[in-house]
């Protein structure tokens, strides 16, 4: 489960860049919006990369699966498989 605090967000866009599932898009006011929560596999990348600590969550089983795929097939392959799932 992800919690996004727009008060803390500085609009850097890093969450948009790192999310393998394209869960985030930038809002008109340069704040990130979590518009596709159904795509989230709970990898934790957005939270880890948010310098403003605007995202909090508990990493779920998807994190483990993504890391294993990344180790076996490389980051791009893991990303592609995650998007396809
Ligand atoms: S990484 Fe954090 S501060 Fe940057 S846009 Fe995303 S939520 Fe906002
Ligand atoms: S936890 Fe992973 S999949 Fe979910 S929104 Fe964050 S970066 Fe995207």
Mean pLDDT: 77
Which stretches are low in confidence, meaning pLDDT under 50 for 5 or more residues running?
A: 81-85
**In this structure, how is the largest beta sheet organized?**
2 strands, antiparallel
Task: Please report the total strand number as a whole number.
Answer: 4
DSSP helical segment count: 4
As for the number of domains, it is 1
* CATH top level assignment: Alpha Beta
> What CATH architecture would you give?
2-Layer Sandwich
Question: Summary?
Answer:
This protein is an alpha+beta fold and 85 residues long. 39% of the residues lie in helices and 14% in strands. The protein has a single domain (2-84), classed as Alpha-Beta Plaits.
Write the layout of secondary structure elements.
Blueprint: E1 2-4, H1 14-18, E2 24-26, E3 32-34, H2 45-49, E4 55-57, H3 61-73, H4 75-84
Antiparallel strand pairs: 1-4, 2-3
Helix pairs in contact: 3-4
Bound molecules: iron/sulfur cluster (2 copies).
Structure description:
The protein has 85 residues and is an alpha+beta fold. The protein has a single domain, classed as Alpha-Beta Plaits (2-Layer Sandwich). It is built from four helices and four strands. It has helices at residues 14-18, 45-49, 61-73, 75-84; strands spanning 2-4, 24-26, 32-34, 55-57. Strands 1-4 form a two-stranded antiparallel sheet. Strands 2-3 form a two-stranded antiparallel ribbon. A hairpin with a 5-residue loop joins strand 2 and strand 3. The longest helix has 13 residues, at 61-73. The protein is elongated. The two termini are 19 Å apart. Mean pLDDT is 77; it is low at 81-85. One iron/sulfur cluster (SF4) binds at residues 9-15, 32, 49-50, 52, 54-55.
């Amino acid at each position: 489960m992800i919690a996004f605090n727009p008060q803390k967000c500085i609009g850097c866009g890093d969450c948009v860049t790192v999310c393998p599932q394209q869960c985030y898009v930038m809002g008109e006011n340069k704040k990130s919006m979590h518009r596709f929560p159904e795509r989230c596999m709970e990898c934790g990348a957005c939270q880890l990369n948010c310098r403003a600590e605007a995202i909090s969550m508990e990493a779920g089983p998807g994190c483990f699966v993504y890391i294993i795929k990344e180790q076996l097939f490389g980051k791009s392959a893991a990303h592609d498989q995650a998007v396809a799932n």
